[in-house]
């Protein structure tokens, strides 16, 4: 493997691991804590988190991995359809469809709806209804994308340690 391919491979492992860790830890710590909050506090916290996550470090890892995974697979391709290449390709597919696609098509529209909700001028009934509209679907999509990114990282890791065949 040449130096450029090695650097891309390491960056791909790093960004995929970071994204898997972020989504995993969110699932098993942040969501658990948020679920204990009352409706107003929950919605306010989610609005705040949804703003805070839109930062350069997150964007570099989130979007960078969309580019790095297929690029890594391409750079690992040696003209043969090997198990390693197939695993690299599957890793890219799980990330792009299962994490990126679910985020764009499932979680982001829910986040946008929540962002537009005027928490300060809403009744308790409206606040309760917004939480019911938001929380379960958001958590369902989040669980799917968490599983997808963990599978993506697992496939990438297996392909990395398997002997080239």
Describe the structure.
This protein is mostly helical. It has one domain. 85% of the residues lie in helices and 0% in strands. α1 (3-35) packs antiparallel against α5 (124-161), α2 packs across α5 and α4 packs antiparallel against α5 (124-161). 25% of the residues are buried.
Topology, element by element:
Elements (H helix, E strand, L loop, with lengths): L2 H33 L3 H14 L3 H21 L6 H34 L7 H38 L4
N-to-C order of helices and strands? HHHHH
Class per helix and strand makeup? mainly alpha
What profile does the largest beta sheet have? none
- Poorly predicted regions are none
What is the number of domains? 1
Total number of β-strand segments? 0
Shape: elongated
Distance between the termini: 14 Å
Portion of residues within helices: over 70%
Strand content: under 5%
Radius of gyration: 19 Å
Number of helices: 5
Mean pLDDT: 96
Pfam family, one: Anthrone_oxy
Protein name: DUF1772 domain-containing protein
Organism: Flavobacterium rhizophilum
Transmembrane segments: 53-75, 87-108, 144-162
Short description, anyone?
The chain has 165 residues and is an all-alpha fold. 85% of the residues lie in helices and 0% in strands.
List keywords for this structure.
mainly alpha; 0% strand; 165 residues; 5 helices
């Amino acid at each position: 493997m040449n130096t450029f391919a090695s650097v891309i491979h390491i960056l791909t492992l790093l960004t995929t691991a970071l994204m898997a860790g972020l989504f995993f830890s969110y699932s098993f710590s942040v969501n658990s804590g948020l679920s204990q909050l009352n409706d107003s506090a929950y919605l306010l916290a989610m609005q705040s988190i949804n703003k805070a996550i839109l930062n350069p470090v997150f964007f570099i890892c989130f979007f960078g991995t969309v580019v790095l995974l297929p690029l890594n697979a391409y750079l690992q391709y040696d003209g043969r359809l090997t198990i390693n290449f197939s695993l690299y390709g599957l890793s890219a597919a799980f990330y792009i469809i299962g994490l990126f696609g679910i985020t764009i098509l499932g979680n982001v529209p829910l986040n946008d709806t929540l962002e537009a909700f005027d928490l300060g001028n809403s009744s308790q009934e409206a606040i309760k209804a917004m939480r019911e509209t938001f929380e379960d679907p958001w958590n369902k999509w989040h669980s799917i994308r968490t599983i997808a990114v963990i599978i993506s990282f697992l496939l990438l890791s297996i392909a990395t340690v398997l002997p080239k065949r």
